[in-house]
Amino acid sequence: DVKVTQSSRYLVKRTGEKVFLECVQDMDHENMFWYRQDPGLGLRLIYFSYDVKMKEKGDIPEGYSVSREKKERFSLILESASTNQTSMYLCASSLPGVTDTQYFGPGTRLTVL
Amino acid sequence: GENVEQHPSTLSVQEGDSAVIKCTYSDSASNYFPWYKQELGKRPQLIIDIRSNVGEKKDQRIAVTLNKTAKHFSLHITETQPEDSAVYFCAASKGTYKYIFGTGTRLKVLA
């Protein structure tokens, strides 16, 4: 079974704080993704990585950065959290092809006060 | 930019009836179309997919159809059951690695 885990299920932070969300997968997948899920907007891609130390911007990268130092771990960083970043964050991983299934983590519900 | 439109946003059906969810994509280069199901409080999971060289694919009670000319694809669920209640997302491939997801359809199956 593919396992994708995220460091927290729920997180509450203050405006201006630096926030780290971590994702770990145990299937040796090359691709890893960070999405944000908001009601009525579906799943929107923030950043993805196709290899260690490689990253590409998704559709909504503003206000976020990422780090992939090891193949199994992909971190999402909010440099200075703002209230409009309150959302559900989902990590996913897959083998390298676009037709390879993306496996999702359980999600982190982040609230920024 | 490229997008995927999904309709309806909510759908209620009686148990045993069929449900149809429709998506339209804009990028003519898209060649892979997965459907994900997200039950309440759980992670999205792939339920069926279709590639651009195929017009229809079935897996038990679910099927997906693709019309490349019109750039739309649909999910069909027959003989719906309460456990089919969930949010369903369509997606279209973009480039080598990525998907663009639709905005989701909340399906309620009424007993």
Question: What structural category arises from helix and sheet content of chain B?
Answer: mainly beta
- How many DSSP H or I helices of chain A? 0
Q: Outline of chain A, from the CA principal axes? A: globular
SSE order of chain A, one letter for each helix or strand = EEEEEEEEEEE
Helix content percent band of chain B = under 10%
Task: Count the beta strands of chain A.
Answer: 11
| C-alpha termini separation of chain B | 41 Å
Mean pLDDT of chain B: 95
Backbone shape of chain B: globular
Mean pLDDT across the residues of chain A is: 95
- Which strand-content bin applies to the residues of chain A? over 45%
Structural class based on helices, strands and sheet pairing of chain A: mainly beta
* Unreliable stretches covering 5 or more consecutive residues of chain A: none
Structure summary:
The complex is a heterodimer of chains A (113) and B (111). By secondary structure, chain A is mainly beta.
What is the strand and helix layout of this fold?
The complex is a heterodimer of chains A (113) and B (111).
Chain A: E1 4-6, E2 10-13, E3 19-25, E4 31-38, E5 42-51, E6 54-57, E7 64-70, E8 73-78, E9 87-94, E10 103-104, E11 108-112
Parallel strand pairs in A: 2-11
Antiparallel strand pairs in A: 1-3, 3-8, 4-5, 4-9, 5-6, 7-8, 9-10, 9-11
Chain B: E1 4-7, E2 10-14, E3 19-25, E4 32-38, E5 45-51, E6 56-59, E7 62-67, E8 72-77, E9 86-94, E10 98-101, E11 105-110
Describe this structure in words.
The complex is a heterodimer of chains A (113) and B (111). Chain A has strands at residues 4-6, 10-13, 19-25, 31-38, 42-51, 54-57, 64-70, 73-78, 87-94, 103-104, 108-112. With 113 residues, chain A is mainly β. Chain A is globular, with a radius of gyration of 13 Å. The termini of chain A are far apart. With 111 residues, chain B is mostly beta strands. Helices cover 0% and strands 59% of the residues of chain B. In chain B, the strands form two sheets. In chain B, strands 2, 4, 5, 9, 10 and 11 form a six-stranded mixed sheet that branches. A five-stranded antiparallel sheet of chain B has the order 1-3-8-7-6, with no helix packed on it. The A-B interface holds A 4, 31, 33, 35, 40-45, 48, 50, 56, 58-59, 90, 96, 98-99, 101-102, 104-107 and B 1, 6, 9, 32, 34, 42-46, 49, 51, 89, 93, 95-104.
